Amino acid sequence: MPETAEVRADSQFEFITFSAGGQNFCLEITQIREIRRWTPVTALPHTPRDVLGVMNLRGAVIPIFDLAARFGLGATPANERNVVIVAAVGGTTIGLLVESVSEILSVEKAAIQETPDIKSESTRHSILGMISVDETMVRVVNLDSVLEAGKGVAP
Amino acid sequence: MSGNSIRDTFFEECEELLEALVEGLSQMEEAPEDMEVVNAVFRAVHSIKGGAGAFALDRLVAFAHSFETVMDMVRDRTLTVDEKLMALFHRAGDQLSDLVTSARDETELAPGAEACLIKELESYLGESDREEDFSFDALTLDFDGPTIDIAVEADAIPSTRLFTIRFKPGRALYENGHEPLLIFDALAELGDLKVEADLSAIPDFDSFDPSDSVLSWSLRLHTTESETTLHEVFEFVEGLCELEVSVSAAPSPADIAPPIAESAPALAPDPTPPPGPDSEATDVKPAAQGATAAPAASAREARGPKPTLRVDLDRVDRLINTVGELIINQAMISQRIEELDLPTVAHLTNELEAYKLLARDIQEGVMAIRAQPVKPLFQRMSRIVREASDATGKKAKLVTVGDSTEVDKTVIERLADPLTHMIRNAVDHGLERPEAREAAGKDVVGTIRLSAAHRSGSVFIEISDDGAGLNRERILAKAIEKNLVAPEAELSDPEIDNLLFLPGFSTAGQVSNLSGRGVGMDVVKNAVQALGGRVSINSTPGKGTTFSIILPLTLAVMDGFVISVAKETMVIPIASILETIRPNPRDIHIVGTDSEVVSVRGSYVPIVDVADSLGLERTDRKGTGILLLVSTEIQGLTALRVTAIHDQRQVVIKSLESNYAAIPGVSAATILGDGKIALILDPEEIIKLGHNAAPDLFAQHTRMELRHA
Fold this sequence. Notes:
- The structure holds 2 protein chains of 2 kinds.
- By secondary structure, chain A is mainly β.
- Helix content of chain A is about 10%, strand content about 45%.
- Chain A has 3 helices and 11 strands; from the N terminus they run E-E-E-E-E-H-E-E-E-E-H-E-E-H.
- The longest helix of chain A has 8 residues.
- Chain B is flat and about 100 Å long.
- At the A-B interface, strand 4, strand 5 and strand 7 of A face helix 13, strand 21 and strand 22 of B.
- Chain B: Its EC number is 2.7.13.3.
């Protein structure tokens, strides 16, 4: 993983960028606990499709979400290179299956743009903002919304 | 130590003291003559008062003082315990507990809540004041000193006496943070004090151990105070030192003069001197406040120092978690080594086996730390019975059985609310009114029986009353009225009883100010289920009702069968399984379109396919697999079909909800030897899910379930 050597100023935020469903996303680095290789999970009955199951993280049972499926981009195809980003939100730890992790991004707060008024209500809710990097666009994932929607148990 | 933690310690001690108080009071009821018990109660109240004084909890002190004073009269045998006084003591105990709680939580109790009780308590004081001859019983002290009859001293006019005290602190006195100098200061306030240190026991420099106690002191105290007051100074170091007190009533004139001058003005403005000579005024007050030396000493003999340790529950939890990891880790290592298939591994296998046993030992030891007797919880319930019988005008007593049964502390804590609720219900709705009881030829006083026992790895708790039993007609009528059951439904008696547990069911038509039986029983059921337990009802008309709660011993570990369901490995709690059956295809019959029953010893038992219930793809065809016979509340016997049973083992329970959410049919998860997660099934929920999938056969129950889904 390439590391940026810049000194982080107070107004700067660090993000880890990754791709899921062919799109670029990022999460603030303070929310990320670790990045792991994909290992098979234990499926949970009566759960939405984007809940892959639960994984043993040193004794804790954590749910793994397919981030692409969560954002309606179709299920992530099985691949050896897939990784699981373990993130913590509130007192809860969750894992997000993504295709690959790319780099650490250091940006000023001002560089984070608000999500424009796009059509899909749910997409707007799950994205905190956007960052433009070298002519590509990186979406900042709203971890709370991922978690909240994930708790919905199918009837 | 910060001020706060000292305060916390005080309130923890208060809890223990209040327990002792409640226990003592209930023993007093049975054996009012037993002075040991009376002393124990007195001591509890007195110690609470002492501690409360140190924290300036004035209301608590004032109330405890009244309580203690009356208690002291019982101790002196100037007051005989009768039913009325006993009831007053019980209420005073409850009030004391309330005052402690409000002081601890720093909430203000309604002003004057205790005033009425104080007045009642003080009415007993009045009686004693009228006694002409006021005298004291001899105090027996726990050392080889002389026995002093203070009454004799009463004849001597405002006299000073010379106490000769030999005081040798034990090592524990220093370890507990006491300081002899402060004790001497307190003594000096009582009168004229001369202190002489005895240095004879100081060893050579070479063998000097700075943590040991070698000093002792001889003290001579001229005072007008009583010996009781003197002992109060030493109250907190009792048992931590050697203490000898002797008294002489003939002090040298030279020594008397200053103490009299000092203490006389202090005595003069005493606001409530009882009638009688001054000398009595000197002695009455301290005696009434309590002479603790004698009873405390006898208690020490009886119990010895309590070998316990206070530990923060969080620390124990951390330890339990870590041990759980250790067990899993051990299983993983075993499996890895097996996979290696090493040629000569005999010694390795042996050592691995030893590791396994040690890990298990540690686990059991750690679990035992959390286990606590249910006694305090049961004791609290006697108050609930008292309050409930006061509120309803019924007469009830609580009988407890198996108080020493040990249960996980968390279980005990979380049982308090459901138990309270059920006990209240038992009094309010279970018991008949006294007239009705008399007419039915029963004892006017109803009995609520609370019992606990260990049975095959579970804890059984039963709450029973000897009341009229459940009124099934009324329950059914109510359920139909509330649209919980179809009017044409025909329910068996147990099914009707179980209607009480339905959410929304309420017999609110006849509830009093207490919660009614039926009101909130669903809450009780949920609370018990959240602990991994089950609750059931058994009622006999005219004889009473019994609620049985079955709970796991601990919330952290469970015995389970490792099973396969479709392609998944899962765990099912052994406690819920009555029997496992490999069915003969001949015994399986199809009912309706898709529902199956199996014939077990002549009766037909419905089959619920676990894979179906969980929405998994079924790999086994009908008629294959293993059936697990379980007993459920509503359905009775049901057979759960799984693909295979692999193993029986202890599993460490991991919550799914802490990071995700509750999943129907699954109670928790565990980690298997290969590090994979296996889900732990909840048989009851699996059956419910199964019923929803096959509505035709169990239409009646399904209707009920659906309405509450």
